[in-house]
Amino acid sequence: MKMNNFIRSYMSSNDKNNNPSGSDKYVISPKLDRMFMDLNSVYQFVVQFFKEVFLPPYEWKEIIKQFYEIGVRSLPLISLTGFITGIVFTNQSRPSLQEFGATSWLPALISVAIVRAMAPLVTALIAAGRVGSSIGAELGSMKVTEQIDAMEVSAINPYKFLVVSRVLATTLMIPTLTMYTMLVALLGGFINVHQNELTSFTTYFDQVFGAITFLDIFSALIKSTVFGFTIGIVGCYKGYHSSKGTEGVGKAANSAVVTAMFLIFIEELMSLQIINALRPG
Fold first, then answer.
1. Which residues of 46-62 are buried (b: 16+ CB within 10 A; e: fewer)?
2. The pTM is what?
3. Which of 18, 122, 159, 212 has the smallest C-beta neighbourhood within 10 Å, fewest atoms?
4. pLDDT at 24
5. Is 44 in the same domain as 63?
């Protein structure tokens, strides 16, 4: 906070002087100063969440409402996306296995690909587009219309009511949706495999569960939890710090989606390296 105030004082003094050549008024440079201020703001925002989440009062009604908004209302889109993912991946994988006469390995390949990577990633990306933009736009609208300021005047903690409830909901519901996506995608793969290879339901799922391990499921849930936290915290931060009226609301929603998706891909890459290191050879 002291560093943030220090940078702001230098930047404001430079603005007051209105001296184009007075770059020495900044700590480093205008762009770098703003970047470090933004990083400090994000850090304080995340730290405040971990402080507020364990302190009463708990907004149970709002948390349950967000569970419904984020989880239940995402089911139709998640169902369709997961089902199509299973069918498309099966169709795309079959020709490669047919070249080696290994189509019997198709259920195992489907299960490994869906459980380890596709289900968590597809669920997170769909949620980032639907939930992240919704949170960013909703909180951005409340910010520019001064509803958040009104909550503070009414002795309501807006951070706990608006941010904590939404981040908790995304953190807990994205893993649940991921498990559901796994099931739907595997069912889509089964329909395709049964139609082409006449594989029975029992044989298909025997091979599916024989190919995956506890580490695969556990790592998928951990990744999904991180993805959910990222979607929630990014959407809330962008909306909570929006400005410039209605234009700022649109920018907050758009920025929440883009930033969340970008971070999800980075987290996917990092988690892949960690999980592969833990996986027995």
1. eeebeeeeeeeeebeeb
2. 0.87
3. 18
4. 52
5. no
